[in-house]
Design goal:
Layout (H helix, E strand, L loop, with lengths): L26 H12 L4 E7 L2 E7 H6 L1 E3 L24 E3 L3 H17 L4 H35 L6 E5 L1 H23 L2
Antiparallel strand pairs: 1-2, 1-5, 3-4
Helix pairs in contact: 1-3, 1-5, 3-4, 4-5
């Protein structure tokens, strides 16, 4: 006896389209750029004289210029610290904008715009601008440390000026690096 086997035709399997992961969207890169730029409104530097805080300077002030109000005659606690030779605490000092801070802010804004675009070259440029903005902030830190050490060498030994970078500064650097990474991942995963 022969059994009849009927072959059933195989059902064609259609591939399920894969949904892109979160890194393939513009959300992570754009959010990182927004955070990095928004942090520029927070204090980046704490300028201290003999362990007393003179001024906290945010990133926008570093990029556009700022004024240090000297304690001089207005503050009796620091009035005796006035340097007679240089008169450094006898008047208000207007500091010019720092080129590194301005570059970081402008490059970061350009990166934010680029992260909103869908072109592959825009994604690559957004990754590059995120990295460049982080490098500019590192250049800012090196430049300010150099300026402080140069100025400290010229000052009297009784007056110790120090500049401390705040957690907001480091958060901005990390956010720019994260934006660069997310932009790169988005570029790699785009079709």
């Amino acid at each position: 006896m022969e059994t009849s086997q009927t072959e059933t035709p195989a059902m064609p399997v259609t591939p399920v389209p894969q949904t892109p992961g979160i890194l393939a969207t513009k959300i992570p890169a754009t959010t990182s750029f927004v955070i990095a730029i928004a942090v520029f409104l927070m204090p980046f530097l704490d300028i201290r004289c003999n362990e007393m805080s003179l001024k906290k300077i945010n990133g926008v002030e570093l990029a556009t210029g700022y004024q240090i109000d000297s304690p001089g005659k207005n503050n009796s606690l620091l009035g005796g610290l006035e340097n007679k030779e240089t008169g450094s605490f006898s008047k208000n000092e207007k500091k010019e904008s720092n080129i590194y801070a301005m570059a970081a802010l402008l490059i970061g804004a350009a990166g934010l715009v680029l992260s909103l675009l869908n072109a592959k070259t825009a994604m690559a440029a957004a990754a590059a601008t995120g990295a460049l903005a982080a490098v500019a902030l590192i250049g800012l830190m090196l430049d300010i440390n150099r300026q402080v050490s140069t100025q400290q060498a010229e000052q009297s030994k009784d007056v110790v000026i120090s500049v401390n970078f705040t957690v907001w500064f480091y958060l901005s650097v990390l956010a720019f690096l994260a934006a660069a990474y997310f932009s790169y991942q988005r570029m790699r995963q785009s079709k």
